[in-house]
Input
Amino acid sequence: MHPRLFTVPAFELLGRSIGPFTLHTYGFLLAVAFLLGLWVAARQARRAKLDASKVTDMGVWVLIAGLVGAKLLLVIVDWRYYGHNPRELLNIFQSGGVFYGGLIGGALVAWWYSRRLQLPGWQTADALAPGVILGQAVGRLGCFAAGCCWGKATTVPWAVTFTDVYAARAVGTPMDTPLHPSQVYESAAAFLIFAFLLWLLPHKSFHGQVVLAYVALYSAVRFGLEFLRGDPDRGAWFGGVVSTSQLIALVLLLGTALLLPRVRRTQAIATA
Output
């Protein structure tokens, strides 16, 4: 765990003290995730004969909306904590949020932007999906470096032990305790989904198949991984059996199952 890539110590400039400046690993990897996601989206847009500049512009706004939505849902889920510790709101920019908040925020902006620019909705969503899951894969590595989104205590041979006091102060990471590397689990799963979506794009039978596959696969992975998450205040539904993320995953899985035959039928009619 390395929450800080490096720190530039304070220095004097024109008689004034400047700094110190710290580059956080999470922020750096988040920027890398954004750039990779936009690059993949632009490539897939060109292959789909869409306006790559419009798709890239939309991707920027989708990523911003996703970041805001993830942080907002984090505050909503942990409102009891942040309500009693308002100063901790400043620390939410040093760690990840709740991804489903980002997915909802990004999806709303994508829907609005595609209508505004008259882009084909399902085809555009298919082009964006691989970039989004690639961004997630890299972003979760940032979470691992920052120490947030940690797993439950475990004795498995690949358990990780966090020792950086800076992370403990910033996001509450448990120190000197072997934990499931839940961030790495999710990152690895996201990379596999990314590879599958890249394969599916040229083989899809209808527009919308790729993005729906992404939502279904990620929701299934996230539902299972939630059982290994150890960070507190994850929301409790149905007597504490299901977390907020698991509830959203179930809703998305059900929604995808109901939507899939309709989209397949509609796109088949449109193609004919």
